[in-house]
Amino acid sequence: MGKYALGQPVWRAEDQRLLKGGGRFVDDVQLPRMAYGVVVRSPHAHAKIRALDTAAAKASPGVLAVLTHADWQASGFGDLPNAKGRKRRDGSDSYVTPIYPLVHDRVRRVGDAIAFVVAGTRDQAQDAAERVEVDYDPLPSVTDTAAASAPGAPLVWDDCPDNICFVHLGGDKQAADAAFNDAAHVITHTFVINRVIAAAMEPRACVGDYNPAEDHYTLYTTLQGVHPYRSQLANRVLKVPENRVRVVAQDVGGSFGMKSNIYAEGPLCLLASKIVGRPVKWTSTRAEAFLSDNHGRDNIAEVSLALDADHNFLGVKVKSIANLGAYCTNSTPNPAVNNLGSVAGVYKTPVIHVDVTGVFTHSNSTSPYRGAGRPEAAFMIERIIDIAADELGVDPVVLRRKNTIGPELMPFKTGLNLTYDCGEFQKNLDMALAAADYHGFDARRAESKARGKLRGFGISNTIERAAGPGIEGSELRFDRSGTATILAGSVTGGQGHETIYKQIVCDRLGLEMDDVSYIWGDTDKVPFGHGTGGSRSATHGGNAVALATEKVLKKATALAAHMLEVDLDDVAFEEGVFSSPRSNRSLTIKEVAVASANPANLPDGMEPGLMATGVRRAKVANFPNGCHVVELEIDEETGAVEVLGYRVVDDVGVVLNPLLLAGQIQGGAGQGLGQVLLENIDYDPQTGQLNSGTFLDYAMPKASHFSTITVECNPVPTDTNPLGVKGAGEAGAVGALPAVANAVVDALSPLGVRHVPMPATPERIWRLMREVKASAAG
Questions:
Q1: Positive or negative CA dihedral for 651, 654, 656, 657?
Q2: Rounded distance between C-alpha atoms, residue 500 and residue 727, angstroms
Q3: What's the start-to-end Cα distance of the chain, in Å?
Q4: DSSP string for residues in 609-630
Q5: Torsion-angle region of residue 239: left (phi > 0), alpha (psi -120 to 50) or beta?
Q6: How far is Cα 612 from Cα 399, in angstroms, rounded to an integer?
Q7: What is the pLDDT of residues 340-380, one digit of tens each?
């Protein structure tokens, strides 16, 4: 209702607090007598540990404890959660890796944790950590995705003889083979989707506090969902009832999927607190994050597209190798497998088959990173379409239009058995091309050429599966003064949850933003929840808040009818006011809330107070979709890329707040652009050492790398949830990866370039241009 109505560009409620320095990040947590932990990490990608001597470290000033694998074993705690339940190609169970918080016999990646030093100050802990002596016997390593399963490759795990963890097959292979046999054209290309790191503004951190009087553990940490995290931490690791564990995650400075796992440092802080009798804090440095955070992407995919003589898509085949790293955490397989549905795209391709092999390497584990497999799958289909258009000599826009699913075909079941419920994919494309003045591009390309620049135009028209089946909880409470509090199960990582959830309540109840408080990320305060991830917060969390609000309104309406002395059907509610044509009185929602606390005001059978919980249970996913158009120039002398225009037309269903939506799309697009043009985790193939372990070597995108990213909406509401919303948090990254890559290739296409590996850095482009020119010269 009013200025806070859903659909209004309401400014973020949390920004006033954050901009004034009122953020509550983990490193801001200060507890009495707090000690500090530092992790001793392996400098080798693969080595046997012949001896470990902690005597000098324990004798260092201020040291309270030096924990090793032996201490962990003595504690009785369990190992960290890992992935199970998949199969290998022969039908046998997938290889399951033990994940020890502290390794003991062998290190399997640079950064493996060997010891945890606890001291009175961080400097004391760091000094002592440098006095831990480890005798290593270095062994050969493999970090390259393609080489991991090659004959003779060094083994990550001795009893996994081919480094293959699992094989996932999807779709109909027989039908796909038949389609390819009947095809007039088969286009095939192998894509390398490089490894990146989330590089969140707030590094991972945690504070463990054990209370011996109650045998109770409290962990303050950076994560995406406190309730499922507490469940795994209590049951799998600490082996205690959940009511003896509290998990708190307040402001989280970015995560993008990376902070969703139980890493070693949280349980180590809890064990250390139990041993030394003091709270223990660990905060990652930026350099340490490169060595200890889970990485993202990293797969090689051979993609084939079959077409008939009229250029209709007949089938798609994908055969990919996914680099899992050294340890298969409980979320590691997800990007490689769970979101391959995006490879179907917005196209009528009748049959699809995917074949995914997950391999171990001596590197950081991979796990979800913004999009979690969706950008990779979108990249595969959108790049192969552009390559097909080039080989067939047709306009890539025309080829897309010919094969795009029309709204009249909804609901549409894809070749990977996903059912799209709604969408106007052709309209997205048309709107984006019009906004980008597609028909005027040839003239602009000629003008650029006259200035010694190569101009490119790239498009992607993508779709993703968002907010899959799941649950989310919330509670709405009114206090005795008539103000309200939302308790939300999802955890904010900068997306603006507070604003959206308050906006839902204010829209439905006619309240002001200042009338509503917001509590999240604390298992002792929020009664039930799941968390953030998979573009689910508006769909699941928003609908949970809306459900709780509806329950509150229903009870408030009944009480208002009693107070107004009219029948329930005679009560109207508008702009926060209850009224009735049968009464000359009116009551605000706040007045009813105040009255609800007094039993004398209530009808028989009504409990005092105005509060309700709402638990959203989603049975199906939704499918946000959109078209990205990128225009850029490449300097033919230097290979430097300048993005000139970036336009997005997105369908995320009902738009709750266009201001926040634009921020989400722009942020995701920035991460996609960063991967295509700049970012790359690079390991030395001989030593397994990380070559890009600081921001001196890992190139992060800056504002100067972007143009304005213009976001326009083509909302097609979905019936899969009451609010009609579709996920938005990852959509920008999904569309950006292929759109930017297509624009780079299009700019270089007059030289004969057909593909540019990621990242398309100026040096790589410069060398590629010279190679092509030299080849053409003979």
A1: positive
A2: 13
A3: 70
A4: S-EEEEEEEE-S-B--EEEEEE
A5: left
A6: 52
A7: 899 999 999 999 999 999 999 999 999 999 999 999 999 99
State pLDDT tens for residues 486-531. Answer: 999 999 888 999 999 999 999 999 999 999 999 999 999 999 999 8
Which token pair is 598? 């007094």
The structure tokens listed for 149 are 């399963």
Angstrom distances, CA of residue 318 to CA of 191, 412, 527, 726, 735 = 10, 21, 43, 27, 19
Residues near 264 by beta carbon (within 8 Å), at least 6 away in sequence: 39, 80, 101, 102, 113
Residue 429: CB partners within 8 Å, gap ≥ 6?
397, 400, 401, 404, 459, 461, 627, 649
C-alpha to C-alpha distance for 564 and 622, rounded to whole angstroms: 43
Q: Is the omega angle on the peptide bond into residue 759 within 30 degrees of 0, that is, cis?
A: yes
Two tokens, residue 24: 């509550």
Reference 460, options 346, 351, 350; nearest CA is 346
pLDDT tens across 102-113, in order?
999 999 999 999
Q: How far, in Å, CA of 733 to CA of 716, rounded?
A: 20
Closest to 336 (Cα-Cα) out of 378, 294, 363, 373: 373
Question: 751, 773 in Cβ contact below 8 A?
Answer: yes
105 token code pair: 């016999």
Residue with tokens 């089946």: 469
Per-residue buried b or exposed e for 73-89, using 16+ beta carbons within 10 Å of the residue's own CB: eebebbebbbbeebebe
Cis ω before 411 (30° cut-off from 0): yes
Residue with tokens 């996913």: 621
Asked if residue 1 has pLDDT above 60, the reply is no
Query: What gap in Å lies between CA 687 and CA 668, rounded to an integer?
Result: 33
Q: Catalogue all structural domains in the chain, each as residue range(s) with its CATH number.
A: 2-22+468-618 (3.30.365.10), 28-138+204-235+257-284 (3.90.1170.50), 421-463+624-778 (3.30.365.10)
Residue 143 structure tokens: 């970090």
User: Residue ranges of the alpha helices (H) in 26-154?
Assistant: 55-58, 69-75, 122-129
- Contact indicator for 299, 322 with CB cutoff of 8 Å: yes
Q: Are 1 and 575 in contact (CB under 8 A)?
A: yes
pLDDT digits 0-9 by tens, 172-221: 999 999 999 999 999 999 999 999 999 999 999 999 999 999 999 999 99
Rounded Cα distance, 88 and 176, in Å: 21
What one-letter code names the amino acid at 252? V
Q: In which element (H, E) is residue 453 found?
A: strand 453-463
3-state helix, strand, coil in the chain (%, to 5): 35, 25, 40
* Amino acid sitting at position 404: T
Strands 484-488 and 470-478, by their bridges, are antiparallel
- C-alpha to C-alpha distance for 747 and 7, rounded to whole angstroms: 38
